[in-house]
Amino acid sequence: MNRVFINMFIYLLIVCYHADSQVYYSVDNLSGILQELGMDDAEDDLFEEWYDKLSMLINHPLDINKASYEDLNQLPFLSDDQIEEIILYRQRYGEMVSLYELKNLQKLDYATIRLLVPFVYIDENPVENSDISVHKLLKYGRNELIMRYNNTF
Fold first, then answer.
1. Segment 120-130, tens digit of pLDDT
2. What DSSP designation does 120 have?
C-alpha cells in the first residue's frame, strides 16, 4: 500500500512539475491603459505623470499583503472604496495567498482586477508559520483525488 502511494505521489509530482501558483504579467501598452481610464495625449503633463507612475509600478510592483492605503492610492483605477475593501479583507482573513483571491472582493469587478494584476504581486511564502503537515491533512482533512488524462490520437 505504501509503495502504491509513493509511486502515485511521484507520478503526480512529475506531471505537475510545470504548474505555477504565481502568474507574472507584463504590460507593454501603458498608454492603452491610460486611454481606457479616459486620459488622452492632449493633457500632456497629467498623461506623462501617470505614465511615469505606472511604469515605475510595473518595474517595482506592490506587495498587496503589505501595501498601505497610500501605496494602493497610487493606482488611478482604484477607488477609495475598493482600496478600503482590500485592506479590510486583509484584516479579516489574513494575508492573501493568491491573486485569485481578489475575485472575492465585491467592489472589484473583472476589468479592475485585470488592470490591477500587473501592478501587484503576492510574496512567495505568505503562510510561513502554519502548523499544517501532511500527517494532519491525511488524519483530519477530507481529501479527494481527481485525475484526468487526455490523449489525442
1. 988 875 455 56
2. E
Side chain identity, residue 151: N
> Which residue type occupies 85?
E
Q: CA–CA separation, 92 vs 89, rounded Å?
A: 5
**Is-contact 75 57, C-beta < 8 A?**
yes
Cα 119 to Cα 67: distance, rounded to the nearest angstrom = 11
Give the span between the Cα atoms of 153 and 139, in whole angstroms: 41
Give the three-state DSSP class for 121: strand
The three cell numbers locating residue 22: 504565481
Residue 121: phi and psi, rounded to 5, are: -145, 170
Does the pLDDT value for residue 87 go beyond 80?
yes
Q: Residue 98 is placed in which grid cell?
A: 493568491
Give the C-alpha separation, 34 to 97, whole Å: 29
